Automatic annotation (TrEMBL):
This is Complex I NDUFA9 subunit family protein. Transmembrane segments: none annotated. One of its GO terms (molecular function) is protein-containing complex binding. Residues 4-202 form the NAD-dependent epimerase/dehydratase domain.
């Protein structure tokens, strides 16, 4: 491939993907559209990545960005928001991008979704994610080449998920936690990035939908306690019933900035975020998944105090 367009390429997963693609081939041009060019530690430090100013929601602008591209990797997603916000990000955006791909002649798409999606799922996040999958499936049904990756919760040195719990563990002697018994299969960001690379390279691949999950099924309580232990401050976790968790999330929603947890997040945790075992997984792509313990050096207590 000579040119790959990556929507969401400046995000957590996108940066890791750009690093993996660059390591695989320095001749492939990686194009990342963004509404504003950013400075600091981001993908623009890589010589084979081109940041271009474009609104991913504008199909005409994206058709221009996609001209001559061999593939699109779509990573854009949100975790918090109204039903309308989820629909705009997870359904309307894929529809707009599918139109741009058709105009530019791009027929190869890798779309990152999520485990637990379903039309009858309890949260707007999960319902909108499966609706977004359907948009791509319909758009590329007449001859396109689509791979959908469904990861569990993604961890890495720069993630918001584990870093938040590490900081909370250092601040509080006890952690009250909504959804403490919710089950996840945490997957390393590097493994997700490598799965995208392999999906682009292996054609035909192991299947149209691939589940990206780590080696361990863990409750949220177990994840929080392991993160605390790695940070040198393992704390007891007090599980909250769902009703209390919804109240906690509502209170957090009143705070400025992005909430730590929303009502929709609590509802999402009703669905186990684990691989079904009925679909291909990371090992089918030749990837041996890494566990959460990979972050132990990152959470050394001395390093954490400096954050």
């Amino acid at each position: 491939m000579q040119k790959i367009v990556i929507t969401g390429g400046t995000g957590f997963v996108g940066r890791s993907l750009c690093e993996h693609l660059t390591a695989h081939s320095t001749s492939c041009r990686l194009v990342v559209p963004t509404r504003r060019l950013v400075n600091g530690r981001s993908v623009q430090v890589l010589p084979t990545v081109d940041l271009v100013q474009a609104d991913v929601h504008d199909p005409r602008a994206m058709a221009a960005v996609l001209q001559g591209a061999d593939a699109l990797v779509h990573l854009v997603a949100i975790l918090h928001g109204s039903d309308e916000a989820f629909d705009r990000a997870h359904v309307q955006l894929p529809r707009s991008l599918a139109a741009a791909c058709a105009q530019a002649g791009v027929r190869r798409v890798v779309h990152v979704s999520a485990l637990g999606v379903g039309a009858q799922a309890p949260s707007a996040y999960l319902r909108s994610k499966v609706a977004g999958e359907a948009v791509w499936q319909q758009a590329l049904a007449a001859g396109g080449d689509l791979t959908i990756l469904r990861p569990s919760v993604i961890f890495g040195a720069e993630d918001r998920f584990t870093n938040l719990f590490a900081k909370l563990s250092r601040l509080f002697p006890v952690l009250p936690l909504a959804g403490a018994g919710a089950r996840f299969q945490p997957v390393w960001v590097g493994d997700v990035a490598q799965a995208i690379v392999q999906s682009l390279l292996q054609r035909p691949g192991p299947g149209p939908i691939v589940e990206c999950a780590g080696p361990q099924v863990m409750t949220l309580q177990e994840i929080v306690q392991q993160v605390g232990a790695m940070a040198g401050c393992r704390r007891p976790v007090v599980g909250l019933p769902e009703a209390a968790g919804l109240l906690q999330a509502a209170a957090m929603g009143l705070l400025p900035g992005e909430p730590m947890m929303s009502r929709d997040n609590v509802l999402s945790m009703r669905v186990p975020n684990v691989a079904s075992g009925k679909l291909p997984g990371l090992r089918d792509l030749g990837i041996t998944p890494q566990g959460l313990a990979l972050l132990a050096p990152h959470f050394h207590p001395t390093d954490l105090r400096a954050r």
